[in-house]
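Repro case for the chain-ordering regression, as requested:
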Amino acid sequence: MAIIVDNDTRLVVQGLTGREGSFHAGRNRSYGTNLVAGVTPGKGGTTHEGTPVFDTVADAVDATGANTSMVFVPARFATDAIYEAVDAGIQTVICIAEGLPAHEMLRVYNHIRPKGITLIGPNCPGVLSPGKANVGIIPAEIFSFGNVGLVSRSGTLTYQIGHELTQLGLGNSSIVGIGGDPVVGSSFIDVISRFNNDPETEIIVMVGEIGGDEEEKAARFVKANVTKPVLSYIAGFTAPPGKTMGHAGAIISGSSGTAEGKKAALEACGIRVGTTPTEVAGLVAEVAKSL
Amino acid sequence: MDLYEFQGKELFRQAGIPVSEGRLVLTPQEARDAAAELGCPVVVKAQVLTGGRGKAGGVKLAISPADAEEKARGIFGLDIKGHVVHKIWVEQASDIAKEYYLSLTFDRGTKRPLFMFTKEGGVDIEDVAANTPEKLAKLHVDPLEGFQAYQARRLVYGAGVEDPSEQKQIVSIIGKLYEAFIRFDAMLCEINPLIVTPDGVVKALDSKFTVDDNALVKHPEIAAMRDLDAVPVQERMAKEKGVTYVKLDGEVGILGNGAGLVMSTLDVIALAGGKPANFCDLGGGGDADGVVDALEVITSDPDVKVIFFNIFGGITRCDVVAEGILKALDRIKLTMPIVVRLDGTNAEAGRKILADAAPANLYVQPTMLDAARKAVELSR
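-- result from build under test --
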């Protein structure tokens, strides 16, 4: 099982022949991900390190049966790439690319949502299901297979927490980085809901940060709908208001979006919150023992 | 990117939203000249990227050019919530019969633009929403359908505007505000107050305008509005070098990769009893030049006593960061202690590079917590 990517994933990489796209797609393939195609307009008919390259996603889908796309193109081409993947029948799009204008993402989101397409990102590290598939830039070697589902707005912070879990002998069913932009394709709720239905996942960890109210909404969803234990970490307790902390979404405006406020809201819904990555890993270990 | 009132009003004007005529001035003398040119009375308004300037004495009415000069003299240099006034907007004073409120925001929750309109203007909209929600008309726009004229009518009738002339003017302003929101890739357009003058003219008396940073490449004219004097010198330098940097008040210089990890690093430094000097994200690429640029920005802050590199390799490769650190130490002679923690992609290679070079002021620590404690200890 696992969620979003697994042994059934047939991956096409949009932007395979670029420097970063090539490096990370190569790592994904080495991990065992079924990389079936690349798309670079003008390079159709060639191969890149053994992978066939097509001019369009539609051609790639026709020839290889690709069902999942990873978008690794520059920002100004990225929304176009998402539309192209969806129109070619791709059901799961994972957009690593960053710097997508929010208004463009608003239209993409409203376009794909009624179609039931899964979009992860943009500006995200991707999805790793240990032992099955890795789509994105998550360093798979620090994670192992297990029963903890991990969902996060941040990339490297996710690695940090995954690393702490590994140190304690805990593994993951899937690790999902949803991205830190104001508009992302999948929310905490979308991913937590999938973890709740995934038989391999027994514990869910939500890694949030300051800004917006997605963590609070997820907490209410967890209280009403989720049967598995959920734990959380929130970054940005020392962040000053009014300053964007790297992620476009990570800004405290007025009294809303603070780490303290999120922690209180989560705890009110029965979600325990660790104050450091080490502490949250410890809490997970405690819960794992009691299962 | 937040715009000043005068910049937001310029975008309003371009979109056809009525605003008062005014001038931007940088000295009291210029305020006097502007007042003479515009005709008195005028309003002398501090331009700062924060709210509450009225209460702080940053907005004054002037009855003559001499009075405008004097009022401006009192406002220049005023510290409003940490923002020092360097720019003043002098505009023709308006008589106010009614104050309304109109905004269009980027609603992240519903993934749709959200209009809010109320006749209870001039106050904090959160208070209206909390205390008298029935007076606040709200409406989402489907970004695929776009704005339709009936939506403006629903807002105007919904908020209880009864005068036909006002209705007509506000419906027009609502449509134009949506056009401005789309055209300039805005995250927020707020008019508070939207006034009605005694002779029935509706216009925007203030402007709060935020543009999506990711869209600035499409709007060079707006990107050029950024006021580099309004940010700390290190942030200006960072901007020029393409480094994501936010100045804070402590003494531990922080450098990491990924916004979430850097935020977490700040928290861990605080837990270890120290104070972070900055937020600095190397971002995705993290090549040697990027590390050099970031180090130059961080060390330009005289309060920094120690540097803490917290790197977890994903898209950023640890060996590249390690080389960057050594290269930077060759270029800028740093005597202050540097604590490094590397993990993730190519971490072993990175640690080996540092161990082989082994500069005396470099401390490699195994975990984030250990590294934070070491950095705080060395900052004392």
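Ordering looks correct now. The domain at 1-122 of chain A is CATH 3.40.50.720 (Rossmann fold).
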